[in-house]
Design a protein that fits this description.
Elements (H helix, E strand, L loop, with lengths): L1 H24 L4 H23 L2 H4 L5 H19 L11 H18 L8 H22 L2 H28 L21 H21 L4 H21 L2 H21 L5 H23 L1 H5 L18 H6 L1 H8 L7 H4 L3 H9 L14 H5 L10 H9 L1 H23 L9 H16 L9 H14 L4
Helix pairs in contact: 1-6, 2-4, 2-7, 4-6, 5-6, 5-19, 6-21, 7-8, 7-9, 8-9, 8-10, 8-20, 9-11, 10-20, 18-19, 19-20, 20-21
Length: 465
Amino acid sequence: MFFDKFEYYLQTIVIQLLNCLWRINRAMKDDRREGLLQLMFVFVAVFFLMIYSGFATTIHLRTQLSRHITGLVLLLFIIIFSQDREIHHVNWRKAISVPMIFTGIAILIVSFIHPVGSGCRVFAVMLIVFFPALALVWNNRGDYNRLFDCIAYAVSWVGIAYLVLCICLILRGEINSLYDAELLRFKGTLSHSGNLSQVYTSVFCSGMYLFIQHFGRLKAVIYAAAVYGIGAGMLMLGQGRSCILACVASLISSVIFFIKYVDKGDIKETAAKLTAAAVISFVVAAGVSNIPVWFAPENTVSDLIPAGVEVVQVAEAADGLAESVEGRFSVEGQDLNSYSSGRIDLWLLVMRNLNMLGHDVEQQSIHDLTQNDWLIYAHNVFLEMSYRCGIPVGFLFLVLEYIACCMAVRYLFRNVRRETCLIFPIMFVIIYFTQSMLDCAGMPFILESGLYYYLCLIPMMDKRI
């Protein structure tokens, strides 16, 4: 009863604000509004590229506070351009809405007791107001395929444009600057090769989504296969283990979903589309993963290699790409802690320091515990938020993600309405689950997968889906 009343009053407040915006916005033509919505998601994808690169420092977006304030503005415009009608109350699925909103409230309360980290209060406001507002808009619309189409096309366009940028830089002879100086893995203009993997994990899954959602259209299938191939090729270059594992799991779920729910039509036509898609994606992936060989065969990464170490030709490095990727997953000569890059010891250290109200991270951050410049986060969302805001907040994060995973499994095996667009939340919940276990994806404008995870909760809040 309490949650029913709380949800009703919260929705009433948000609906009043949304309908005030609608009175201003309603004169705009639908096609212009939809075009601006698509543009906002392109801005979001570009914004994450800026976050992942050194350019973020130049434009003062280095702190989580500045990033999340910028993200808040982007979300506001997405809400405005998403709304195409007056908003009414919606019967939410409380298993999703309650932990999400009360996580925000708990973070906000603790933040007034002690500092919990840059950007956390803005994140709390997103959870309490902005994501529920966006959910109300799209729950009233009901065309979730449009929401996921906007995200997938924006991600794919930006991914293709960034690939072209990398090729242009290689042609200008700047290939050495595109490699990670410590790991000798391709990173593009981003600050780390892992960031490249993050970007193209989203591109990979966007390609799979577009393939399934628009399987009836040959041109869309060809485009989706090319996008999928670009994502796979760049993942091979970035070699992010958690990203590759997440994409493999997403691919398996996509195959199951395709078999169960996609209308195949004529068998010969379906076979032709699948064959064409397989060939295109394989050729594109092979080509993209060998870009250093094709466009800069004479260059070396010699300036990245310490003195006395044999210089590696780019062509030789690329020829051994499969072996290097395999090596990233090899457990030979490693215990569990070294294979996880020190995460096990870090997690144990953080767990020993957890309490019910969290820590003043300005006085005692995880970096202060570890005395390690790399280990500045817990590399686990539940431990990170428990350390900052207390065990109850970490538990709420865990509950929300558990319910989201259950909903994703339900969409995969019991999609009664046969909504093909639901493959999007399935894949991005898988990606976020992987990142939340191994990285710092708690807040939506740290990693791209974090934002798309929270957007995937929108249809999950709708009891009709």
